[in-house]
Every structure is written in structure tokens, then in C-alpha cells.
Amino acid sequence: MTTYPVARLTALTQGYGGRRIIENLDLAIQPGVTGLLGPNGAGKTTLFRTLATIAPPQSGQLELFERPVTNERQARRVRRRIGYLPQDFGYYPAFSITDFVRYCAWLREVPSRKVDSATREALAAVGLADRARDRMKSLSGGMLRRAGIAAAIVGSPSLLLLDEPTVGLDPAQRLDFRELIRSLARAGTAVLLSTHLVEDVGAACDTVFVLSNGQVCHSGTPQQLAELALSTAPGDSPLERGYMTVLGNHRPNEGAAC
Ligand SMILES: Nc1ncnc2c1ncn2[C@@H]1O[C@H](COP(=O)(O)OP(=O)(O)OP(=O)(O)O)[C@@H](O)[C@H]1O
């Protein structure tokens, strides 16, 4: 059976003003969980904003759900199928968690008859059902992040874009989060997860891309990335070492793979 990419970028060039951050990038996101690794400033958030249809490509083509997205009308149609958790997401401090997630469901055009049940399901999925009435301004960093994840998954999007979703989560919550995204993927959601926490990629992703200077310099399974490890030191994981190899930051000083 042929599986089509959920999202495809062809010859993407993207940037800010005259500054190019991503140039001539080809990338396909398949069903399952895909990890996106890359150093600060590599262009991960820029890529997410493009996939979320917030920033139209400066040049190149974006296809989502097997259809080109070339104008605002097409973007609006696909946006309701995309859940996006930005790195820094905005909210009204006086909203309760329920208000916040309901509001995001409304923005994503979840049918009104489904909004209440979808909100309850999303809050239960992130372990916030018993905190549903708490005000957003009263939440700890980790709880705020979980509220953001609930807002991204409400209404079961087809494509879930999570930009550093595990920042601030305690270890138990990170384990729960990994299980959550694996179960969402089993249920048919394609997940793209950007993170600096390499172990999240090893534990939860089917595929991993490494982005550096706006270019994909490695794609494969986490296992394949780990196999690129050139040397290990006590406490380092092979996946971290493989990632460093790809970035050319491995020690001792050998040639860069990227
Ligand atoms: N709104 C903006 N205006 C101008 N430049 C920007 C803007 N947003 C990002 N940039 C620049 O684009 C480059 C890529 O930024 P981006 O946020 O996409 O990287 P990133 O890989 O997500 O980084 P990090 O891991 O630090 O979040 C950086 O040099 C950044 O300074």
C-alpha cells in the first residue's frame, strides 16, 4: 500500500525580509511521529510556521494532505486539520484552562456540538481534567505547557506540529507525553516534534530529521542516527553522539558530515 506524505515542501525558500533562513529545501512528512532536531537558529520554528500555513513560502511549494496550498483560501481550509503548539504560545491570563482549550477548538473550527467533549478529552489526555477551572495565570510552567498541548490536540487534528513541547515537563509528564503522541499516531495523527531533548526522539519517533542552517543534513530512523556515533563518553547516549556527528561537532576533531 502506498502512503502519501501528510505534508510536503518542494524547493522551499523561507526567511524574514531579505534574510534567507531556509533555501531550496525538499522535505516530506509521513504518517507516524517525526522528530526534528537542530541547533538554535537552524530554522525549525520557521519551518513549523510554514507548515502551519502562518508564513507563506517566499518561494517553493507547500502541499498539505495531498493538495497544494498556494493562497489564503486553501490555507484556511487545511488549517482546521492542523494542531500547532508554538514554542511561545499566547493566552488570556484570566481564562480558565477549559476556556483556553475551548477557544482554540473554536479557532480550529471544531464543530460546535463536539467542542465540549473534545475539550474534555484533550484535558484528560494531558492529565489536566481535575484542574480544568484553574486560571491560566496561576499555572506552573509545566502545567502551562500541558495546557498548550491540550489546545494543540483538541478535535483530533490530522497533523500535529509541536515546537519544543516537553520544555518544563517533569520526567513523569515527559513519559506520559511520549505515550500520548504515540497513541495519537496510532490513531492516525501525523506528528512533527521539534525538540532539543534527543532522548524524546529516541523514545517516540519513527523518523528523525536533523536541520542545520536551514538544510536537512540527516534523515532516517533514530536507530540510524545513533549508529553514526563516533565516540562515546560515560553518560552520553549514542543518539546524542550520532546527532553531534551529523552536525560535525563530534570529538575528536573529524570531518563534518553535514
Ligand atoms: N520574526 C523574525 N524576524 C527576523 N528574524 C527571525 C524571526 N524569527 C526568527 N528569525 C531568525 O531566523 C533564524 C532561525 O530562527 P528559528 O526560530 O526558525 O530557529 P530554531 O531552529 O527554531 O531555533 P531555536 O532552537 O533557538 O528555537 C534565527 O537566526 C532567528 O534569529
Automatic annotation (TrEMBL):
It holds the Pfam family ABC_tran. One of its GO terms (molecular function) is ATP hydrolysis activity. Keywords: ATP-binding, Nucleotide-binding, Transport. It comes from the Bacteria. Residues 7-238 form the ABC transporter domain. InterPro entries: AAA+_ATPase (IPR003593), ABC_transporter-like_ATP-bd (IPR003439), ABC_transporter-like_CS (IPR017871), P-loop_NTPase (IPR027417). Signal peptide: none annotated. PANTHER family: ABC TRANSPORTER, ATP-BINDING PROTEIN (PTHR43335). Belongs to the ABC transporter superfamily. This is ABC transporter.
